[in-house]
Amino acid sequence: MKNRYSFGGDEHLFVECDENMSLEAFFKSLSMTNAVRDSGIAGVTEICPANPSFQIKFDPDVINGERQTSTRDPMTPLLAVLRDEFLLTGAKAVCREGICGACTVHLDGQPVVSCQVPIETIEGRDVCTVESLAPAGEPSPLQQIMGTR
Ligand code: FES
User: Fold this and answer.
1) Ligand 1 atom 3, closest CA
2) CB–CB of 29/11 below 8 Å?
3) Which of 12, 17, 26, 43 has the most crowded CB, counting CB atoms within 10 A?
């Protein structure tokens, strides 16, 4: 059986490795949960292996792997909060009308123009900016390759 993935609310990921309990399903669940634990993914708060499934609890309020909150007006554009409050200036403010794309970030893995996204719409969602490519200040492997070409 292929793994089946489902979400429980916006904080739990449930993975079914098999329909029946077995030693093979138990070790599959155990090895997958160990890999998740070893990878140290930011936002993962609990990993619960079982037989023949496992559950992962995560914090949905993360930006580049860290939980962030803002007390600004709910209609404030995400771009303004990223740049002015969190000092993430990789997304640029150019047209501010949703035309140029200079302010693009990923919201739940999908590109959006952040100048057009009010912060009231992103609660509990994952925001990823270009700064996430170099989380420790070191260029990512992709940036290293691009820098040598
Ligand atoms: S600043 Fe141009 S699309 Fe957002």
Assistant:
1) 98
2) no
3) 17
